[in-house]
Amino acid sequence: LRPEDFRQELASPIFYTDDEKSDQWSLKLYPRGEIDRDFISVLLTLVAAKKPEIFVQCELSILEPNNNAKSCMQKFCHRYKLGSPFGCKNFLSRDDLLSPANNLLKDDCLTICCIINIPLNTVHTSSTHDLRLQIDNSRKRRLGDDFRMVLRENKWSDVQIIVGQRKYHAHRVILASRSPVFAKIFNKDWKEQKQSVVHINGIADEIVKGMLQFIYTDTVNELEDRVVDYFAAAKKYKLAPLEVKCEEIMLEMVNDQTAADYLLAAELFGATDLKEQLIQYIIKNMAGVIHSEGYKKLAANYSHLVFEMLEIQTKTLQKMLRDFSK
What we know:
Layout: E1 10-11, E2 15-16, E3 24-30, E4 39-48, E5 53-63, E6 70-81, E7 86-93, H1 94-98, E8 112-117, H2 143-152, E9 159-163, E10 166-170, H3 172-178, H4 180-187, E11 197-199, H5 205-217, H6 227-236, H7 240-253, H8 259-268, H9 272-284, H10 286-289, H11 293-301, H12 303-325
Parallel strand pairs: 9-11
Antiparallel strand pairs: 1-3, 2-3, 3-4, 4-7, 5-6, 5-8, 9-10
C-alpha cells in the first residue's frame, strides 16, 4: 500500500509534446484521492510552455500488465494554463483498482497511459469569439427599476408617509434598512403603529418624494436644483449615500453665487470636510463671492463664519510674509 494520504500526490517525470521540448507536462496521481478517498485521481499539469495556455484533447487510460490493453479510458478537452492541473478526479475507484479480478496491477505497479493531442489550429491560442445574445430589454431590468415600480404602484405597502396633505405608501423593511432613523422609529414603541403612518414635518413634499425615490433606487431626479434641501433631508434621516452624493454635487457646482449657501449648509449639518473646502474656495474667490446674496445672509446672521474665514486668510498671509522674508 502506498504511504500517501488523502490529497497527497505522486508526480510523474516531465514529458514533452514538441520537438523543442518547450511544452513540458507532468501527471499527478493521488493514490487516496484528491476529492474522494474512495477514488484515485489523475491530473495533468502544464509545467512550462512557450505561451501561458494550450488547448488539448487528452486521453487517460490504464495499461493492463498482461496484454497492454487499455482500460478505464477517460477522454476530455481542456485549455490548460501554466501550473493549473486538470483531469479526472474520480478516475478509478480504489476497490476496482485493488480487485484481483480486474488484473490492473502487476507486482503492485500501476501503468497509466496519457495521450495528448494538440489541434494545429488551436496551439497557443485563446478564444476570442464575439458572442452576443438578443435580449429583450424587459429582461435586463435592474433592482432599482423593480423597486421604483414597487414604490410607484404602492405594491405590498405596510406604512404610509404623511407630508402635509400628501400621502406616500412605503415599506418598513426598506426604509429601516436604509435609514437608522426610520429603523429606530419602527423598533421602539411606535405611537402611530395602529394607523401604520409616519408624519414628516419640516421638509417640503417634493423633497420627501425625492428622498423616498433615493431610498428605493439610489437615484433622485433634479438633485442639483435642490441639493441643499436634499442635503438637509439626508442629514435628518442619516442617509449616508445621499449625503455623500450631495456633497460631491456641491463641490462640482460651487461658484461665486452658490459658495456661501453651500458653506452655511456644511456648517449647519456638521460636514467638516465640505466646510473646509468651501472656505478655501471662498477665500480664493472672495472678490466675486462677497457680492452674492448668500454671502450677505452669511455676514448678517452667521458672522462667526466670516470671522473664521478672515482668521484663516490672515494666517495664510502671515505665513506668506514669513516665507518671503526668508
